[in-house]
Amino acid sequence: MLPRSPCAAPRPVDEFELIQRYFVRDGEARGVTTGIGDDGAVLQPEPGREIVTVIDTLVEGVHFPADMPPADLGYRCVAVNLSDIAAMGGRPLWMTLALTMPGADEEWLGGFASGLHEAAAEHDVSLVGGDTTRGDAIVISVQISGDVAEGAAVHRSGARVGDTIYVTGTLGDAGAGLALLSAGNSDEYLLQRFLRPTARVAAGQALPGLASAAIDVSDGLLGDLQKLLDASGVGGEIRLEALPLSSDLKAAFDKKSQRRFALSAGDDYELCFTSSREVPDKLGGVPVTAIGTITDGDSLVCRNHGEIVELADSGYRHFQ
Amino acid sequence: MLPRSPCAAPRPVDEFELIQRYFVRDGEARGVTTGIGDDGAVLQPEPGREIVTVIDTLVEGVHFPADMPPADLGYRCVAVNLSDIAAMGGRPLWMTLALTMPGADEEWLGGFASGLHEAAAEHDVSLVGGDTTRGDAIVISVQISGDVAEGAAVHRSGARVGDTIYVTGTLGDAGAGLALLSAGNSDEYLLQRFLRPTARVAAGQALPGLASAAIDVSDGLLGDLQKLLDASGVGGEIRLEALPLSSDLKAAFDKKSQRRFALSAGDDYELCFTSSREVPDKLGGVPVTAIGTITDGDSLVCRNHGEIVELADSGYRHFQ
Question: pTM here?
Fold first, then answer.
């Protein structure tokens, strides 16, 4: 690029142009006074509402394989954050992106940006800021802010003894999809459940006033439910026979594997919540299933038709 | 860790405990209804104010050397974001952290967290959420939200022909400090200017109503001022003899190097702003210097005692 004056500054064109080309979208966006391109975004929430903010990072080789289709990856890194907003009962509004990658691979970026915007557009979320940096591996941090009526946010800590434990949708599909993918097989439904996780945003917005506590199932039901129990200072029992399983999962795996995926595979991005109230069969169009009860104490017990079951592996350990 | 019940979930203890141990601080925090530990934070801005949000990523080997003292790194990754909030005229409030690293190195984490909290505490900023993940290199994304009176945010795009161009503090110190460090020498003041950048938060909060446009000097004056000119659709002239230089910089380097550091070394985190109004000698306790004028056109011209000067390298290119 030629300098534009005797001492014109060679601007950091690459980052700026990358952001302009792939991430800036025209048009008015909800609550956005100033979006991408200044030192910061300027946002205007409604009075009487609170801001909910979440952040999640995906690392190449840890959270996704290097050859994952970039559009799926873009979709995913938005969906996992939308899921956290949903678990708070919030309405997602604005997103920021921190993207580290080895170089400016245009094809990859185009795919990634399209998936990112697709997931965001489904919930009218706008990208209001970002930062692209160079690094050896791809690291993606997406942060989403939303809002919720003042005092209405649903926390992990509100579960009370006697509450019923619910989950949305079906469990284990994403883990099963990943396992099939790794084995070179494929079931389109299960694969899509892994590649394009559906954040339960509409169901989440139905939780304020209905749920006593909620968490999203990202690391596996057992691990995530335990976090909810810990935060609430209670125990819980779940009925294994009540776990909602998809027909595709049941067709592709034996009973033991079905249960393992449903209990301990991550990436489902369903909501797990507790309530003492009458809960409709569906929330935001998604089926809701009662799977257990909040109990005294601090442990999580699994029963199969009444009998206590011992289970080995579960959850996801980031540093092991 | 022993399971706590026949099917107790082995929780992802490491991440959770890391966050608890190093990042959670007790006590009430400004505007924070719910902080770390739920699916998201819940925040309550004042009515009549807007939210300003910024994000910045630091990558090991790209933005900092692998052996950088972790406390300095923690301090720095907060300061660079505070600087963006300052450049918008905002009041910093809340921070989220996405931290990727090879493993849970306790000594490193303790140092990093102490520097992070030190920088945050200087401006009463609280950490409200975060995510730690495993990856080969250290990648740190910090996102800070603040607020500003409705409509008062200072943008890059407001500079008008005839406005005076100002900078806070002195330029080039951080780049000089880094050069000395790389050469195995050291000047305590210059080194500290690199290791512990001082975001001009108080000066930034004096900008609304006073400045027509502002940007922080993170990539180098020439590059950053050019961004401001581009956003405003104007040109500019700067007087090289007017650039504010510290006595330490002048003592350690010859004139040519002084100028190179002041114009094109990054990491100063001073504010560059424009105004048509009378500007005090100091803003938020920091000296302010007039260095040039906004002109017609779109180019940035440097003059030394009136004579146009051609300058070669400057700025920082992320993908080159």
Answer: 0.85
